[in-house]
Amino acid sequence: MIIQYWINGEKISEDVAPDLVLLDLLRSKGCYSVKCGCETTNCGLCTVWIDGIPMLSCAVPALRIEGHQVTTLEGLQEEAVEFAQFMGAEGSDQCGFCNPGFVMNVLAMVRELKDPTEEEINEYLAGNLCRCTGYISHMRVLRSYLAKRQKQVKL
Amino acid sequence: MNITHYVKAESLEEAYMLNQKNTAAILGGGCWLRLGQQRVGRTIIDLEKLGLDKIEETKNEFIVGCMVSLRRLELSKELDVFTNGALRESLHHIVGTQFRNMATIGGSLFGRFGFSDVLTCFLVLDTEVELYKAGRVSLAQFVSIKPDKDILVRLIVKKTPRVVAYESLRLTATDFPVLACAVSKDTDDGVVRCAIGARPAKAKLFREGQELFADGFSAEAIKMYAACVQDSFVFGSNIRASAAYRKDMAKVLVTRALTKIMVTGGTENDNTILD
Predict the structure, then answer these.
(1) Cβ distance of B4 and A18 shorter than 8 Å
(2) Which end of chain A has the least Cβ crowding within 10 Å, N or C?
(3) pLDDT tens string for chain B (275 positions)?
(4) CA distance B149 to A11
(5) Do A56 and B98 touch (CB under 8 A)?
(6) How far is B226 from chain A (nearest CA, A)?
């Protein structure tokens, strides 16, 4: 089926197979930040935005993005670089495999939640699994990042 | 996946006709797509174009389209107030924000999944589902019907005043529940309803034991009711917990939920939107 959609602002029209998953479509377009980490639609690593809403691209049939805007980390480079510096400063990006999905969900969160509490942050990001850190360093990163964006983490 | 046809239905009639083939399936949120070929049909029918992604509120009902995401339900202030926060409590533990942005209420209910938090919660509300061919049936009745090729179009939550509480037990955050429990008390006739899900079988509604509250809502009455619920359900074992553990925990969750209701008042629904 020929569909029209946008990836990181670029308009694309093409024939898409009925069994193609969005994750694979995006990787075929060079968006290698999008990865499959769990095979069970649970880990958050494949997070992309569809019309600004974070979703798991491993379980989205590619044909479903017809007429929609898809955003990956490649399309948010400026913000991603800024956030990565906070992660680097706190040593929270140990193996780094889960980072892209995590950053995508953090950037969605800062758009959606105003002055989130620590509990709200934990809840919003609960679907992003990290097997290295134990998440404590992630919370330090978020405190300093949100403070810089003039949002506060309410305790 | 072995999907060979992907159809964006233009009408419910078209979707229904296409869905009559054994190899066809209606696509909800897609959250099962990676979990086994047997769940994915060769023909996928997408209802995206049919405008079923809205929550509407009338004087007497909430009407929830089958394509409304679990996250939209979770963020509905009106439903949150109406259910005393119980609906949100049943939703916000499910996997993660991104998953709930995709999973639909239609898919969640139609599957009659044993682990379903949301099915457990809606069972104690005055809830119906609208099926394309069979029309409106109560959710409790729908759960007992074997899944067929009809289409769940909408969920209807009637504004019958009920105080609601929801409790679940999980071994780890974001996992399926080991046990799910919802309790409601009708503020008009005082009837207490309890649903237990993740037994691990699908949730079931319990309406007995009303006589235990004949003298009001006391700690003793709650204890006896919880024991009554515990003895009335059949629990099973699976990878997450044994039947004996589930049975023990059922008493705890029912007691917690009823205590919440007692604290909330139990005599007056604080959902001001009813006025």
Answers:
(1) yes
(2) C
(3) 788 999 999 999 999 999 999 999 999 998 988 876 665 668 999 999 999 999 999 999 999 999 999 999 999 999 999 999 999 999 999 999 999 999 999 999 999 999 999 999 999 999 999 999 999 999 999 999 988 999 999 999 999 999 999 999 999 999 999 999 999 999 999 999 999 999 999 999 999 999 999 988 899 999 999 999 999 999 999 999 999 999 999 999 999 999 999 887 543 334 333 32
(4) 37
(5) yes
(6) 30
Q: Residue B97 and residue A60: Cβ atoms within 8 Å?
A: no
Residue of B6, B27, B95 lying closest to A127 (CB–CB): B95
B30 contacts A126? CB cut-off 8 A: no
B1 vs A contacts (CB less than 8 Å): 19, 21
Q: Which residues pair with A70 in a beta bridge?
A: A7, A50
Our CA-based measurement puts residue B152 at a distance from the nearest CA of chain A, in whole angstroms, of: 20
* Backbone torsions φ then ψ of A67, nearest 5 degrees: 80, 5
Complex ipTM more than 0.90, yes or no: yes
Asked whether B44 and A59 are in contact (CB, 8 A), the reply is no
E strand or H helix that includes residue B263: helix B243-264
CA distance A58 to chain B (A): 8
Count of CB atoms situated within 10 Å of the CB of B242: 13
B218 touches chain A (CB under 8 A): no
| Tokens describing residue A87 | 């992660």
Q: Is any Cβ of chain B less than 8 angstroms from the Cβ of A132?
A: no
Interface contact A105, partner B, CB < 8 A: yes
- For A127, the closest of B6, B27, B97 (CB atoms) is B97
Contacts made by residues B41-45, CB under 8 angstroms, sequence distance 24+: B41/B3, B42/B2, B42/B3, B42/B4, B42/B5, B43/B3, B43/B4, B43/B5, B43/B6, B43/B7, B43/B18, B44/A18, B44/A61, B44/B3, B44/B5, B44/B6, B44/B7, B45/B7, B45/B9, B45/B15, B45/B18, B45/B19
pTM: 0.94
Token representation of residue A48 = 């992309």
Would you say B258 and B222 are in contact if contact means Cβ atoms under 8 Å apart? Answer: yes
